Amino acid sequence: MLLTGQTILVTGATGAIGQAICRCLAADGARVMIHYSQNRAAADALLADLNGQGTCLAADLATPDGATALWHAAVAAEGRITGLVNNAGIRSEVAVDAPLPDWQAVWDRELRVNLLSAADLTRAAILHFRQHGGGRIVNMASRAGQRGYASNAMAYGASKAALINLTKSVALSHGHEGITAVALAPGWVRTDMAEAFIAQHGEAAALAGIPIGRMAAPQEIGELVAFTFRPTQASLNGAVLDVNGGSYLR
Is residue 94 part of a domain? Predict the structure, then answer.
């Protein structure tokens, strides 16, 4: 039980990756705060699977005050928080020749959910961690944020690239306070988002360029997140961990 005594907030916890993260954290002894936007039933079911080892918290991260409200609710529910996983994310498509209002609407929402909510939670976490002897932040970035992305989903790639930079900035600026940050950069993971892409573009398009010939499983991501929260892994501070089957090599 390597994470016993840790209390970790996971955003977007009812999706496939979020659920895997919560299960792996709880299996290693952490108490998990399960964030959901609308699907309370899925959050309650996940908490039951964790034998009640946590709390369910609702928040709309698409609103400017949603992330801060979530953090305040988490502190009110659990007191001290030792970790944050910025996992919530959306991927939308809009063509460059779409009407400007449509283009801007996609970018505004994508940046709000994928980046700005994570930034607000990171700010709140840093202030909290300063008062309680440190803490760790894990950001769910993407291969798309490292190598560029498709024209119709540039907002997603740009938001994930900024999330990687946010991770490095926290690591560089706050490591001396015992506040560390790590980013994961998955390629395709077998989730609803991936299935939606496959339905539109075909599985061959998703698997193209992945040497191992398959997507990552959510469990792989969950296990790696749990590993990054081990107290012994402080030196991972600032790392960007690739989970892409060899499809992007640095």
Answer: yes
User: Which secondary structure element, helix H or strand E, spans residue 135, and what is its range?
Assistant: strand 135-140
Q: Does residue 2 fall inside a structural domain?
A: no
In this structure, what are the phi and psi dihedrals at residue 244, rounded to the nearest 5 degrees?
Answer: -135, 15
Instruction: Report the share of the chain in percent with pLDDT over 70.
Output: 100
State which residues form the domain around 120.
Answer: 7-240
Residue 192: which region, alpha, beta or left (left: phi > 0; alpha: psi -120 to 50)? alpha
Is residue 81 a contact partner of residue 57, using CB atoms and an 8 Å limit?
Answer: no
In sequence order, the 6+-apart residues with CB closer than 8 A to the CB of 52 are none
Would residue 248 show up in a list of annotated catalytic residues for this protein? no
The answer to whether residue 171 sits within a structural domain is: yes
* Per annotation, catalytic residue among 36, 149, 156, 248: 156
pLDDT tens track for 177-220: 999 999 999 999 999 888 888 888 898 988 888 999 999 999 99
Residue of 120, 142, 126 whose CA lies nearest to 63: 120
Task: Lay out the sheet containing 83-86: strands in order across.
Answer: 54-58, 31-36, 7-10, 83-86, 135-140, 179-186, 240-243
* pTM exceeds 0.85 for this model: yes
Number of structural domains in the chain: 1
Q: Please report, for the domain that includes residue 128, its CATH number.
A: 3.40.50.720
